[in-house]
Protein 1
Amino acid sequence: MSRRNRVSEAVIRRLPKYYRYLKDMEKSGVERISSRELSDKMGLTASQIRQDFNCFGGFGQQGYGYNVSELCNEIKKILGLHKNYNVVIAGAGNLGQALANYVGFEREGFYIKAIFDVNPRLIGMSIRGIQILDIDHMKDFIVNNNIHIGIVCVPKDKAQEVTDQMIECGIKSIWNFAPIDVETPADVAVENVHLSDTLYTLVYKMNEI
Amino acid sequence: MSRRNRVSEAVIRRLPKYYRYLKDMEKSGVERISSRELSDKMGLTASQIRQDFNCFGGFGQQGYGYNVSELCNEIKKILGLHKNYNVVIAGAGNLGQALANYVGFEREGFYIKAIFDVNPRLIGMSIRGIQILDIDHMKDFIVNNNIHIGIVCVPKDKAQEVTDQMIECGIKSIWNFAPIDVETPADVAVENVHLSDTLYTLVYKMNEI
């Protein structure tokens, strides 16, 4: 890819936040914003913001501020959100179903093509028109449907196995919600999302205050 | 509280991960572990781990390793997970229902006492015996039921309002899933969880590889 430099993990993690704030501002009709105003809104320093943007060549003119809509689009492209992605979900439990039901992902170009489960009571049902299929058919389905992203919502003890199967079939991106850190080869991206971790952090903070 | 020092945000964010790994090891019957072995498992450096633990006075003897079960318990206490917490959820949509259905929280001492919604078709129903109540009754309920944590799963445009209501009734901890950063006074802890952010980071990484 044509990345300028290897960008630090911390910067990468701030990009979605910039995107979120800028999209909201664009919707509210804000046309220009200075790094100072953006920093006030986002709880970052203005110099942090300028440094972050410089990782990608910078987007503004000194003293003139950023064009919100252009900046939003630039960050969208940097994140790769100007493209569409085909997605499957493994595990049609509570969280798998909630994710399948969430229409916001489609609006951003993520198309959930199928959900897979082992439970015969769920197989054959559908969620918003998305079929729940037997997990035994997952590998064939992935191979035949150009799937980019696999969402793992199976129980902990099956998460690595399902991840491995997805990768075997060519998936290059794993979004894991099972409460373990699944491992992937160097050429497969992974985000292990641990909801409980944020709850525990919250409790720590509450007790500290 | 009797914290030794103000601990950095980065260390605080690693605590739940230590807890998760140690709990798993304890369950698997591991009795002792060196910081080296722990670091291999967790993808941190051994010196990082020792530094982190030193923030809390350190838990091990040099060259002898950590007692897994004791360390797990210590971190549990530091996080405040040795206590029970009463919780309410605002918003009985997909994610609200998924969180209410998740039994894992109860096992860690988080008791969901009620769910609140505006939808008359949901009000009166229950999830695992937890009632869905009219959101107009939320404030009374919080005042009368010693609620510690409020989970916000309402749409974006209602999230701050619901947060404010919770805080007004004495809640000291907000776990927000609406796609905005809700704001709280200095004496109220907040974690804004943005699931989409991790998806976008994943896509960035996939395109970078």
Protein 2
Amino acid sequence: MSAAGEPTTPTPLGVAMIGYAFMGKAHSQAWRNVAAYFDVPAVEQRVLVGRDAEQVAQAAARFGWAEAATDWHEVIARDDVHIVDICAPGSLHAEIAVAALEAGKHVLVEKPLANSLAESERMVAAARSAREHGVQSMVGFNYRRVPALAYARRLIADGRLGTIRQVRASYLQDWLADESAPMTWRLRKETAGSGALGDIASHAIDQIQFLLGDTVTDVSGRLHTFVGRRPGDGGLENVTVDDAAWATLSLSGGALASVEVSRVALGRKNSLQIEVYGSRGALTFDLERLNELQFLDGAAPDAEQGFRRIVVTEPDHPYAGAWWPPGHVIGWEHTFTHQIQDFLICIRDGTAPSPSFEEGLQVQRVLAAIEQSDAAKSVRL
Amino acid sequence: MSAAGEPTTPTPLGVAMIGYAFMGKAHSQAWRNVAAYFDVPAVEQRVLVGRDAEQVAQAAARFGWAEAATDWHEVIARDDVHIVDICAPGSLHAEIAVAALEAGKHVLVEKPLANSLAESERMVAAARSAREHGVQSMVGFNYRRVPALAYARRLIADGRLGTIRQVRASYLQDWLADESAPMTWRLRKETAGSGALGDIASHAIDQIQFLLGDTVTDVSGRLHTFVGRRPGDGGLENVTVDDAAWATLSLSGGALASVEVSRVALGRKNSLQIEVYGSRGALTFDLERLNELQFLDGAAPDAEQGFRRIVVTEPDHPYAGAWWPPGHVIGWEHTFTHQIQDFLICIRDGTAPSPSFEEGLQVQRVLAAIEQSDAAKSVRL
Amino acid sequence: MSAAGEPTTPTPLGVAMIGYAFMGKAHSQAWRNVAAYFDVPAVEQRVLVGRDAEQVAQAAARFGWAEAATDWHEVIARDDVHIVDICAPGSLHAEIAVAALEAGKHVLVEKPLANSLAESERMVAAARSAREHGVQSMVGFNYRRVPALAYARRLIADGRLGTIRQVRASYLQDWLADESAPMTWRLRKETAGSGALGDIASHAIDQIQFLLGDTVTDVSGRLHTFVGRRPGDGGLENVTVDDAAWATLSLSGGALASVEVSRVALGRKNSLQIEVYGSRGALTFDLERLNELQFLDGAAPDAEQGFRRIVVTEPDHPYAGAWWPPGHVIGWEHTFTHQIQDFLICIRDGTAPSPSFEEGLQVQRVLAAIEQSDAAKSVRL
Amino acid sequence: MSAAGEPTTPTPLGVAMIGYAFMGKAHSQAWRNVAAYFDVPAVEQRVLVGRDAEQVAQAAARFGWAEAATDWHEVIARDDVHIVDICAPGSLHAEIAVAALEAGKHVLVEKPLANSLAESERMVAAARSAREHGVQSMVGFNYRRVPALAYARRLIADGRLGTIRQVRASYLQDWLADESAPMTWRLRKETAGSGALGDIASHAIDQIQFLLGDTVTDVSGRLHTFVGRRPGDGGLENVTVDDAAWATLSLSGGALASVEVSRVALGRKNSLQIEVYGSRGALTFDLERLNELQFLDGAAPDAEQGFRRIVVTEPDHPYAGAWWPPGHVIGWEHTFTHQIQDFLICIRDGTAPSPSFEEGLQVQRVLAAIEQSDAAKSVRL
């Protein structure tokens, strides 16, 4: 605390990150680069934590972390660690996050918040308590920080689309299209919780709520597994999670959204597509072309209406001014850079980051309701 | 009957058409032009039938019909009429079609087959009896005759997509996006049967079954009306049909299909979009670019895979050889020209055209099941 | 002449067409259908003229012509023929057109106007004389009648693009990409005049002048033949026309345009692409998607600018209201239908159609200057 | 030298960079991140050099340089500096590069190589001498390191396009479209050398030669300035460089290429577009969608041909395996990261990097020939 009773941000803020696989690589990138583009409190990549001492040491060297460690309990107790960034598997989120928050560390946790509603609720409780003491927390729905989607939200909030009626969101990948792709922990319910639903429908659902500034109130859905058995170490094993999921969602403001996700949609690599139709405008987006937003302004005369391709790299676009001149596109990784920036600004200013753990829990509740709904019988012809 | 007992096709075949609005204009175009491009039995546009004597006479003159008439009963009794093309409102389909078939006339009827399952079943019965006597019948799902979609069906039938898993079909329009658009008979359940569901989801569902050569076995769906009241002659009236509909469909071969249709999707004029994902290939289509098909061949090496834009105007493409050199695109109207061609060839050859009335009835059953499913409760959060 | 001394249009106008190959098929379509969509003076397809009596009779039957004939001299002398539509090879244009005009017949001639400047000038002289007597003439640059391009011209004329600076036009085809494609009369200078230059650059150049309402004042260009020898009846023969051509054109209003055309651009079937950049707006077009125009309005705030895809099927778009509801696209063939409509309206009203023979001659002069420029040496490194 | 007489790479390699504006920011990014993704010799960002002591110190802190300095002469003399990266204005390239090479430092210089042919030739001479002593040099045509373009080169080299005939390259920007944009040093011939020609046509020309593995032999071109006067400090000043340039280029292997560049093409932000047409295949690319390559395989049956959109993020694609899973796109900045990687590998292996100073000089010669050609008269109508 400063003399005036205001919290002061330690300088530099020490960061510990837990996990160094795909998400660890992406988050490291963000920590390493954020200060070159944005005016944020000084940070230091202090320590990277993982189970395998040798591998975590190598990863730390490669990704720019000063130290490596294997025991996260020790690390979150260190005085020179002020922020804990959790990229560990979902089953560990709750334990680490609660402990870190109780130790007074700001926490960023990858999505989904946790593998169960019960764990998620514990995390929300810990986040609420910590927040009262100026300790911040955030869940990593990084696609909120795609400039095109942040700009889309602004257009919607400014009323440029009028009343939102219909939203179409799909997230299609194909890394399970090949039926000889092997069994992994991601395809077992006990370790992964669910399949495409938790992994990518979570992104789609968070994004719908983010764009509309609204909340899902009821759902109806369906899950399906196309490839029921895959080769494991000892022969074919049963896949116990979904390959694809479908849902329709009602939002409290009156909009209806459809969600379709798949990991067997051959030819779609990482295609989160979103369409929003309102009474006065519409927009569409595809993550494979993440620097672009298609916007239709219904206020134009009929003869002049059309979806316009906005290259979201202008100084006035969210985040874009920090980068390169217009038309010089940025990559997927910088959704994380923007996320870190926003997180650091909140820490500096003592404000609550969004998406909060509460928002992460709300997404989990929608996912659970879809699974519950799937049990309902469809109508046979 | 010829001496040999084979039916001979009268030359020329006399055609009567009932109805002269949007579909009448489109069908007239097909009758007027089919013989300039395809080798079909000779036909004559004998008589156009409508209620208003003056208007039907004008339409007949404009659209190339030799005569106009107001009483369809008389027309279907004429010896010089061999084909009856029904473009009248859906509520009249059953009565006219059954009478014409019983009079020994070949019948083409616009989709949907009828407004009720009971009527549809009566029409199927009449079509079956007539077929035994060499009298043919067909329902006008004209999008089966888009060259790109006929070619897509061929690729699927040839196994180029492997096992079909996931199909995404949407049909989006926006002519009801404006909430001041007035009340019409199309927005009342008693006259229209349903809204976007019967009008455009019927196309999407027929197309899914056509492309896959498969049949829907169960459905789960949802209907919604975004603009509940619209200005009528005497003030605001209640809209009693859906503006939009959503469904997931199981097919007997194991595929799952999603369908989403809307008449309030601002910026989408006539956008029937279809995506098909199989184990070895994928394809996408948009009716607003109906000369194009996007095809991904999963047999190519990973580094070379991608959706390729095929301009479906090559001599080897279905129907395309009859038209212009490659790259010279055709319009929406010629789905009807192709339909007439196929219908005439079936009449000449004494074979049963497809889609048959049975196929039309099957689509009606899917629509009915979606409405039934909508009554089921969704899960509230 | 009417009592008031005004010419009256004979009813119906009798049409004779000379030639029945590709263009004859396309023009026949237009004559057969124009009155079903547009309010034009009544016309009758009286007689089709060709050299081979049997073939022309078959074509006449197929394409809707009442009679067939082999001697165009006799046909243009007939009292019941009021319009002569010339689809014969370019080397015959001048002789037929001049004779027809002198016989008091309105003349529509396919592009290019003629194979030589001398012939073109004779035709212009005949057209001028005839025009004084109310006899009209027109050259068939049909792409002026693409709704999207007619709308583009309107946007430019209305100042929506500001001062036009840069135009990029390309017309790419690939029917000569295969080097085993055989020798034809189209590949010999003595019969074809030139290659891609006269065949397709003529379209691009007319379109540039049409869109801008401006005139080319100087040019600099280059021609090239990639496949110099092709298989003929008696072995390999020399190709004596260009496969591709490039030019830059100055326009009197200050704009600069580039033109690139090719018949060996593999994968491009019939791709006339046009981009126009002005001080306040821009637009792009591709003939393979002829129902679409991309428009960028530079008056919008930077963050909202982007090329918008306008589907040019709205009632307010040129020609579009005559066809189908919005989003129901038309085909390449109706550029001819629109051309005939405009021609008939001019005949009825006694006004001069555009593009006139003078405009056709101006395009020929630009082509000749490009050939002349090609003789100039480029700079060797 | 090692005991065996082989050069050993110092560890870590110390880097000095001169210049810290746009290119300095982009190069810093590459130095800061390269080792996190690629296996390269260890490097250290030792010192950043600029004229303004305060600003260079701030830039050094922000971009990750250990020190800042204002005198490049001193810096290139330092023993702990092994690499000099020159991002200073083009007029300084020759002096710094020659001095650094003579001091035994490896040199990377931004494009264009220099502002004059004489300077470029001096640099080439210095590079040749240095190369004999294992001192490497490279010019920064970073677009050679776009994965899609490196992959395009591979497809061409593998013969997948057959004989290349026609290349179309354009580089369109719009930052000078507004005629009230102010006068700068970039718009004066004495400081900038040329306008769009040297700035962006240089990229297009290098890319053509890179993709085809071929050399331009003769050129014919045109330059134009659309906005001749712009507001300067003391009123309107004359713009003395080109706003746009056009050229056709012959390549020694028989291909012809067109180049069009502009800084007034409203709506185009950073659009380098390239099309390559060969006898057996074709491809297209747009820098605004730099993760995509469109490829047409002419070996497929006609009915299956089409440009396929390859998302160039597969492990087998050049550079792509180092980044993220397929479909997770990278940004413009990593063309520099790849460039640094290739440069470091060459330093480590003692091989000559490409593009060499000789290749940079060749591009300068093409640009000079275009300017010379522009003096030739076009043909007036």
